[in-house]
Design goal:
The chain has helices at about 10-20, 95, 100-125, 145-160, 175-180, 190-195; strands at about 35, 45, 75-80, 80-90, 130-135, 140, 170, 200-205, 205-210, 215, 220-225, 230-245, 250-265, 270-275. The protein is of the alpha+beta class.
């Protein structure tokens, strides 16, 4: 039975690697956590999610510390509830696993689909009650005001103690980027480090990434300007296996991905809720 030679761990690792490479958002999230992720409903502890505050004194006397602080967001618990699964058949899994076999094509499709699903879920944090919206109602984005909107985002983040040295990324739609480009900003395409992160341009200390995976709701796009510490994301392919397909002369490959996300630093995410001229 050829499926007994199926390399589940190798395929899972390659899916995750290709998924991360295809994703716009994942490399811009907090990924470190403690705990085991095996089944839906499992909880993990997000590491390093909070900020430490200080007590100050200038009277020359011994400083009074009081009760120890529990930094906001520290030990944030994330219960994983999201699942996505794949299940497909190949005539012969040994042939499919060859260097030019069908398995590589299927694996890439699975990776790309996971990238899209995971990106869209991370992007859904823009509609969290904790997220800062640029305005109560969607604003019409134009060439004349799009850069001012980005400037307002940077100002709000800095006023909420995001350092000017902190990496901040703007995730925008192709339509929004078209308006940005019309202002003749520098694309900075010689910056290989920036390009490796998925950014296509830079403006006012923002790396600009184009993605179709931001939330679109009733004609309104929720573009996100955020640090890499604003959102935590956890995921794992917990099950992947091959078996002989029932009622078919073929092998079956299936797997399950668990994932979830949480907005852990609301003051490091600013959302542009914008619409465009039809």
């Amino acid at each position: 039975m050829s499926y007994e030679k199926f390399k589940a761990n190798v395929m899972a690792a390659k899916i995750m690697e290709d998924r991360t490479r295809a994703s716009a958002f994942i490399n811009h999230t907090v990924r470190e956590y403690e705990g085991m992720l095996r089944n839906v409903g499992d909880s993990v502890t997000i590491k390093g999610a909070g900020k430490v505050s200080f007590v100050e004194s200038s009277d020359g006397k011994p400083i009074q510390l009081g009760e120890p602080q529990t930094p906001e967001g520290t030990n944030a618990i994330l219960t994983v509830k999201q699942q996505a699964a794949f299940n497909f058949m190949v005539p012969d899994i040994d042939s499919a696993q060859g260097a030019k076999g069908a398995m590589e094509l299927y694996r890439r499709q699975v990776s790309n689909e996971f990238a899209m699903k995971h990106d869209k879920y991370i992007a859904s944090m823009a509609q969290s009650p904790l997220a800062k919206l640029a305005s109560a109602n969607a604003t019409q984005a134009t060439k004349a005001n799009i850069l001012e909107m980005l400037d307002d985002a940077v100002q709000w983040l800095q006023e909420n103690d995001v350092p000017t040295t902190e990496k901040v990324t703007a995730f925008v739609t192709p339509a929004a980027f078209k308006l940005i480009r019309q202002n003749d900003i520098s694309l900075d395409t010689d910056n290989s480090k920036m390009l490796a992160s998925g950014a296509v341009a830079r403006y006012n200390n923002l790396d600009i990434v184009i993605t179709n995976n931001v939330v679109r709701d009733s004609g309104v796009d929720y573009c996100m300007i955020m640090t890499d510490k604003a959102i935590a994301f956890v995921d794992a392919i917990t099950k992947i296996e091959a078996k002989r397909a029932n009622n078919y002369i073929a092998d079956e490959v299936r797997g399950v991905s668990l994932y979830d996300a949480k907005l852990i630093r609301p003051k490091e995410l600013y959302v542009l809720n914008i619409k465009y001229t039809a």
